[in-house]
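User: My collaborator sent over this chain with a note saying "see what the structure looks like." That's all I know about it. Can you take a look?
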Amino acid sequence: MDVYIEAKGLSKTFGNFLAVDNVSLSVKKGEVLGFLGPNGAGKTTTMKMLTGFLNPSIGSAEICGTPVTTGHVSARKYIGYLPEGAPLYGEMTVYAFLKFIAAAHKIPTDSIADAIEAVTNAVQLEQVLTQRIETLSKGFKRRVGLAAAIIHQPDVLILDEPTDGLDPNQKHEVRSLIEKMAPDRAIIISTHILEEVEALCSRAVIINKGSIVADDTPSGLRARSRYKNAVSLTVSKKISADVITRLKSSPDINTLEQNIEGDFVRITALNQQNKSVIKTIDTLIEAEKWPIEQYSIEAGRLDDVFRSLTQGDAA
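Assistant: Without extra context I'll predict from the sequence alone. Here is the result:
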């Protein structure tokens, strides 16, 4: 599989502040990489270095085998970049803006109309093509930015919060579009929406305080969670106290969490040393004859792993 994005030892300082510290990663054709981290972790700075908007203080980056820096712009023809709060020319209509972007990417004049039609259909902008961008909602502006990022059919997509400001239906449409584009491209998505990572991404990189603290598949990260193999039971309130007392008496179960859901209580039982409690709970259910409304075994929680890696003991 071809490597389309290659970063080696990227570091960036602003004065005495180290924003990005020795970040190395590669993304192959067909991969969708979720780029995660708390605010201020260095995600946006890293993406700006990968797209040539910022030069690294140390390290290098290549896109499709071509070096990318602020002074070496030839790599940009391979890149579609959607920055956070993508700058748009508010006084232009959507059509005029996309025509301008297409010309900037040197799309042949006789192909520009077809290129605009393809991207407006893809992100559903047909109804606002003649409107000035400044009159659009946040969601439509986001879609205009996405259309501008993909109009030249780039090999690499770097998307910073691509579904920010979109309603649930629009988010679904954008995710579907990314899935369709993924097989022929290398894609990096920066997002705070962990369900988006699980739905879209084949890999996830977590960055904290400028450094990579995890690089794994979403399922691999979930497996690190303390909730791996945790068991959740939903029982009626009438018997919940007895169930909790009995579960607490088991030496294999050292953590219980409760959530009241109407007339029922959802109880999650786990062992902090990642020892499986499934057999213990199944034996108790059979012995005590508890009427169980719902029963599930957890694969782990991505948000739990994210917090533990970015907050440490504070999690």
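A starting point for your reply to your collaborator: Residues 109-123 form the longest helix (15 residues).
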